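Archive record:
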Amino acid sequence: MTTLLFVRHAHSPWVPNREAERPLSTAGRVAAQRVADQLDDRRIDAVVSSPYERARQTVEPLAVRRDLDVRTDDGFRERALADGPVETVGETFESAVDAVWSDWSFAWPGGESSDEAQARGVAAVERILDRHEGETVAVGTHGQLLTATLHHYDDRFDRTFWREALTTPDVYEARFEGAEMAAIRRLYEPAE
Protein backbone atom coordinates (compact mmCIF):
# COMPACT_ATOMS: atom_id res chain seq x y z
CA MET A 1 0.00 0.00 0.00
CA THR A 2 1.32 3.44 -0.96
CA THR A 3 -0.15 6.53 0.68
CA LEU A 4 -0.28 9.99 -0.88
CA LEU A 5 -1.13 12.94 1.34
CA PHE A 6 -2.46 15.51 -1.13
CA VAL A 7 -1.97 18.97 0.37
CA ARG A 8 -3.84 21.79 -1.30
CA HIS A 9 -1.90 25.01 -0.75
CA ALA A 10 -2.76 27.53 1.94
CA HIS A 11 -3.96 31.09 1.29
CA SER A 12 -1.97 33.16 -1.15
CA PRO A 13 -2.91 36.68 -2.21
CA TRP A 14 -3.82 37.07 -5.89
CA VAL A 15 -1.13 38.80 -7.92
CA PRO A 16 -1.91 39.17 -11.65
CA ASN A 17 0.57 37.53 -14.02
CA ARG A 18 2.58 36.03 -11.13
CA GLU A 19 0.94 32.62 -10.88
CA ALA A 20 4.13 30.68 -10.20
CA GLU A 21 5.73 33.17 -7.77
CA ARG A 22 2.80 34.01 -5.47
CA PRO A 23 3.88 33.30 -1.87
CA LEU A 24 1.66 32.42 1.04
CA SER A 25 0.03 35.22 2.98
CA THR A 26 0.70 35.58 6.71
CA ALA A 27 -2.47 33.57 7.39
CA GLY A 28 -1.32 31.02 4.82
CA ARG A 29 2.01 30.55 6.61
CA VAL A 30 0.17 29.98 9.90
CA ALA A 31 -2.12 27.45 8.17
CA ALA A 32 0.90 25.63 6.68
CA GLN A 33 2.24 25.16 10.22
CA ARG A 34 -1.20 23.87 11.23
CA VAL A 35 -1.02 21.29 8.41
CA ALA A 36 2.40 20.19 9.69
CA ASP A 37 1.04 20.00 13.26
CA GLN A 38 -1.92 17.87 12.19
CA LEU A 39 0.34 15.47 10.28
CA ASP A 40 3.06 15.39 12.93
CA ASP A 41 2.28 11.82 14.01
CA ARG A 42 2.26 10.48 10.44
CA ARG A 43 5.15 8.77 8.78
CA ILE A 44 6.20 10.76 5.72
CA ASP A 45 8.97 9.32 3.56
CA ALA A 46 9.14 12.01 0.89
CA VAL A 47 7.73 15.43 0.03
CA VAL A 48 6.93 16.41 -3.55
CA SER A 49 5.41 19.69 -4.65
CA SER A 50 4.19 21.74 -7.52
CA PRO A 51 6.96 24.16 -8.46
CA TYR A 52 4.62 27.06 -7.62
CA GLU A 53 5.78 28.96 -4.54
CA ARG A 54 2.51 28.75 -2.56
CA ALA A 55 2.31 24.95 -2.88
CA ARG A 56 5.98 24.49 -1.98
CA GLN A 57 5.69 26.81 1.04
CA THR A 58 2.65 24.87 2.29
CA VAL A 59 4.51 21.53 2.45
CA GLU A 60 7.86 22.96 3.51
CA PRO A 61 7.10 22.78 7.28
CA LEU A 62 6.37 19.04 6.86
CA ALA A 63 9.71 18.54 5.14
CA VAL A 64 11.68 20.62 7.64
CA ARG A 65 10.32 18.66 10.61
CA ARG A 66 11.47 15.41 8.99
CA ASP A 67 14.73 16.71 7.53
CA LEU A 68 13.50 15.96 3.99
CA ASP A 69 14.01 17.90 0.78
CA VAL A 70 11.00 19.20 -1.13
CA ARG A 71 11.28 17.79 -4.64
CA THR A 72 9.27 19.52 -7.36
CA ASP A 73 7.20 17.90 -10.08
CA ASP A 74 5.70 20.14 -12.74
CA GLY A 75 2.84 17.67 -13.09
CA PHE A 76 1.35 19.01 -9.85
CA ARG A 77 1.27 22.69 -10.94
CA GLU A 78 -2.10 24.41 -11.22
CA ARG A 79 -4.09 24.23 -14.42
CA ALA A 80 -3.43 27.04 -16.87
CA LEU A 81 -6.83 28.52 -17.70
CA ALA A 82 -5.61 30.70 -20.56
CA ASP A 83 -2.47 32.22 -21.99
CA GLY A 84 -2.38 35.14 -19.55
CA PRO A 85 -5.24 36.59 -17.50
CA VAL A 86 -8.69 35.17 -18.35
CA GLU A 87 -9.93 38.72 -18.91
CA THR A 88 -7.98 38.66 -22.20
CA VAL A 89 -10.50 36.09 -23.52
CA GLY A 90 -13.42 38.24 -22.36
CA GLU A 91 -14.24 36.18 -19.27
CA THR A 92 -14.17 36.48 -15.52
CA PHE A 93 -12.29 33.87 -13.51
CA GLU A 94 -15.61 32.28 -12.46
CA SER A 95 -17.02 32.03 -15.99
CA ALA A 96 -13.70 30.76 -17.38
CA VAL A 97 -13.55 28.03 -14.73
CA ASP A 98 -17.21 27.08 -15.25
CA ALA A 99 -16.54 26.53 -18.96
CA VAL A 100 -13.68 24.08 -18.42
CA TRP A 101 -15.61 22.14 -15.77
CA SER A 102 -18.77 22.00 -17.88
CA ASP A 103 -16.97 20.55 -20.91
CA TRP A 104 -13.89 18.56 -19.94
CA SER A 105 -12.49 18.74 -23.48
CA PHE A 106 -12.82 22.55 -23.75
CA ALA A 107 -9.78 24.80 -23.31
CA TRP A 108 -9.38 28.56 -23.54
CA PRO A 109 -6.65 29.77 -25.93
CA GLY A 110 -3.30 28.84 -24.46
CA GLY A 111 -4.96 27.03 -21.53
CA GLU A 112 -5.63 23.44 -20.54
CA SER A 113 -8.85 21.50 -20.68
CA SER A 114 -9.90 19.51 -17.63
CA ASP A 115 -8.99 16.36 -19.58
CA GLU A 116 -5.46 17.69 -20.20
CA ALA A 117 -4.97 18.83 -16.60
CA GLN A 118 -6.25 15.48 -15.34
CA ALA A 119 -3.89 13.51 -17.61
CA ARG A 120 -0.95 15.58 -16.36
CA GLY A 121 -1.95 15.10 -12.71
CA VAL A 122 -2.52 11.34 -13.08
CA ALA A 123 0.87 10.96 -14.79
CA ALA A 124 2.48 12.76 -11.82
CA VAL A 125 0.67 10.47 -9.37
CA GLU A 126 1.86 7.43 -11.33
CA ARG A 127 5.47 8.68 -11.16
CA ILE A 128 5.22 8.89 -7.38
CA LEU A 129 3.60 5.46 -7.12
CA ASP A 130 6.42 3.97 -9.21
CA ARG A 131 9.20 5.69 -7.23
CA HIS A 132 7.76 5.34 -3.73
CA GLU A 133 5.98 2.00 -3.57
CA GLY A 134 4.95 1.19 0.00
CA GLU A 135 5.84 4.67 1.27
CA THR A 136 3.93 7.76 2.38
CA VAL A 137 4.47 10.86 0.27
CA ALA A 138 3.15 14.37 0.94
CA VAL A 139 2.21 16.14 -2.30
CA GLY A 140 1.83 19.93 -2.45
CA THR A 141 -0.60 20.93 -5.16
CA HIS A 142 -3.53 23.13 -6.20
CA GLY A 143 -7.31 22.95 -6.00
CA GLN A 144 -8.33 22.55 -9.63
CA LEU A 145 -5.49 20.20 -10.50
CA LEU A 146 -6.14 18.10 -7.39
CA THR A 147 -9.86 17.88 -8.14
CA ALA A 148 -9.33 16.90 -11.79
CA THR A 149 -6.73 14.30 -10.78
CA LEU A 150 -8.87 12.74 -8.05
CA HIS A 151 -11.84 12.66 -10.44
CA HIS A 152 -9.89 10.09 -12.48
CA TYR A 153 -10.13 7.72 -9.51
CA ASP A 154 -13.48 8.77 -8.03
CA ASP A 155 -16.11 10.90 -9.80
CA ARG A 156 -17.29 12.47 -6.54
CA PHE A 157 -14.40 14.86 -7.01
CA ASP A 158 -15.93 17.41 -9.36
CA ARG A 159 -16.68 21.11 -9.78
CA THR A 160 -19.03 21.04 -6.76
CA PHE A 161 -16.30 19.48 -4.61
CA TRP A 162 -13.81 22.13 -5.78
CA ARG A 163 -16.22 25.01 -5.10
CA GLU A 164 -17.93 23.84 -1.92
CA ALA A 165 -15.87 21.23 -0.06
CA LEU A 166 -12.20 21.94 -0.71
CA THR A 167 -10.60 24.43 1.66
CA THR A 168 -7.38 26.44 1.51
CA PRO A 169 -5.39 24.58 2.77
CA ASP A 170 -6.73 21.04 2.78
CA VAL A 171 -5.31 17.52 3.09
CA TYR A 172 -6.64 14.28 1.60
CA GLU A 173 -5.08 10.90 2.33
CA ALA A 174 -5.31 8.56 -0.66
CA ARG A 175 -4.23 4.94 -0.27
CA PHE A 176 -3.20 3.10 -3.42
CA GLU A 177 -2.87 -0.60 -4.15
CA GLY A 178 -0.68 -0.55 -7.22
CA ALA A 179 -2.11 2.11 -9.54
CA GLU A 180 -5.64 1.87 -8.12
CA MET A 181 -6.91 4.16 -5.40
CA ALA A 182 -8.28 1.91 -2.67
CA ALA A 183 -9.49 4.58 -0.22
CA ILE A 184 -9.52 8.32 0.31
CA ARG A 185 -10.40 10.50 3.27
CA ARG A 186 -10.02 14.07 4.39
CA LEU A 187 -7.49 14.64 7.18
CA TYR A 188 -7.36 18.42 7.56
CA GLU A 189 -9.27 20.09 10.37
CA PRO A 190 -9.65 23.84 9.70
CA ALA A 191 -9.15 26.26 12.56
CA GLU A 192 -12.37 27.38 14.20
